[in-house]
Amino acid sequence: MNVKELELFSKLSIQEQKHSIRVAYDIKFFCKENNKIDMDLLLKAALLHDIGKTYKKLNLIDKSVIVLLNSISKGNIKRFFKNEKINVYYNHGRIGRELLERIKCDKELLYLVEHHHNFEIYNNLGLNILRFYDKKN
Ligand SMILES: [Fe+2]
Questions:
Q1: How far is the CA of 81 from the centre of ligand 1 (A)?
Q2: For a tag site, which of 22, 48, 89, 109 has the least CB within 10 Å?
Q3: How many domains does the chain have?
Q4: Please, are residues 65 and 85 in contact by the beta-carbon 8 Å criterion?
């Protein structure tokens, strides 16, 4: 990562940094077995995929409340509750893309970060790998 990317990474909570490093570690292991994959791109995506969460800090209680409200509202939380933290929780992919765009990151990286929770896109190998290890960790 360059200095600007590292600066952004350092704004993640320690818990989110640890999660991102675990995702990167698994992806590195996976890529070593599969040399057709752009490992550098995927490692950067692993470390920066949740960077949109730095826009508005969410603590463990916020996340628990959001998950609970989402369950109560049967998945319609965004319709029933208008709140900036809920917006960040559900749109941190897009917000992350915008943050990374400002520091002129590669388009491939922007794509992976923006869509890492979009399960409608399944024909992108890098995205599939990132989503798999994101979920696992
Ligand atoms: Fe995420």
A1: 20
A2: 22
A3: 1
A4: no
Separation of CA 11 and ligand 1 centre (Å): 15
Domain of 45, in residue numbers: 3-136
CATH number for the domain spanning 67: value is 1.10.3210.10
Find the 32 Cα to ligand 1 centroid distance in Å. Answer: 24
Q: Name the nearest CA neighbour of 38 among 123, 124, 99, 136.
A: 124
Ligand 1 center to residue 131 CA distance, Å? 9
Reduce the secondary structure of 33-78 to three states and give it as a string: HCCCCCHHHHHHHHHHCCHHHHHCCCCHHHHHHHHHHHHHCCCCHH
pLDDT one-digit tens code per residue, 49-60: 999 998 777 777
